[in-house]
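It would be a great kindness if you could assist me with a short task in structural biology. Thank you for your consideration; the sequence and its tokens are set out here.
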Amino acid sequence: MLTANLTNSLEIKSSRRVGYVFSDEYTKVAALLPSNQNRSFLTHSLIRAYSLFEKLSLIEPYHATLQDLTQFHSSDFIDFLLNVENSPNEFTKKEDIRVKSNDRDGIDDNEWEEGGTFEELVEDYGLAYDCPIFPGLAEYVRMVAGSTIIAARLLVNGEFDVAIHWDGGRHHAKKSECHGFCYVNDIVLGIIELRQKFSKVLYIDLDLHHSDGVESAFLYTDKVMTISFHYYATGFYPGTGALNHVGQGKGLYHAINVPLKQGLKGSTFLYLSERILNAAYNAFEPHSIVVQCGCDGLFGDPSREWNLDIQSFGQCVKGIVDWKKPTLILGGGGYNHANVARCNAYVTSLLIEIPLPHDIPEHEYFEQYGPDFSLFVDQGNQPDANDQEYVSHLLNTITENLEQMRSS
């Protein structure tokens, strides 16, 4: 049985049992992700520099199997994804892939389509644009997916109250296609694992971008509620997540979208999130929680859409964990890598109830935090377009939808 490394658990002062996915090997693999090269080094190095590793139970990363990955993703997509990096010349036509896959356990050969050049397959599976093929791709896919799965499994087994996997949270990947820097949807796989024990799972997404991959995976079920706080504007990726997108079939009113405008500041975010999340929690009554902590809404991110501060972000996550349900905490977007590391370190400290000094400790990546070398960053001055009228409209509409869910 896969278990956590519990060597440091006796030193934990918090009553909350917190697991943390980490290994040096996995950090090197996660740091290969083209959209976030080396970000993993900054996050784990800062958390270690603050001496938080001594207060955490480290979880050994896990390599997902083919069976694990195809709990959600299609067999043809996974087979291509795991082999394309090492032998692209073998994939000249889909008929060739079908022959190649005949002896592979777990592959449904009927899923392969006829014809298609290698270039067409690359495009079909979403590897032509924002998800390029890179050295180490197969190892990355197996480890990012497997690490979310093992974190969820340890929650299922009751070994932790909270499990953190900062290198996970790839919310755009679809069943048979990479999307938006996301090659595999570890979140969906983690939720599937949680549902081995927990009948109802609440998924909360704090990323700047809509959680389209996760929402679409659970669109028709009433066993998973998805809540996404995201920037929504014409032409902004992925273009989904309107307020009136509320789920379908049995999943009607189980998808909550909170489409927000430019300049969102911490006070507005906390006002909205506290009310929406508490209302959803009380209406849905989940048995387990998953939180995607994408940091691209923080002030200083290259996206420049929101003005969130780290303190407000952290307080939101802390409020969720204070529900005292088994909770899986995942990373996500964020392209100012130093600010992502700051935020991840702060959230980690809140979850184990260890206050951090505001001065960044000296360590290998210390220079990345200049010129102020502070844990926190200033909130931006961009006007918050989410005025009281719009905020009230969001709250009223979502409250009405939750009432509809209760009565259905």
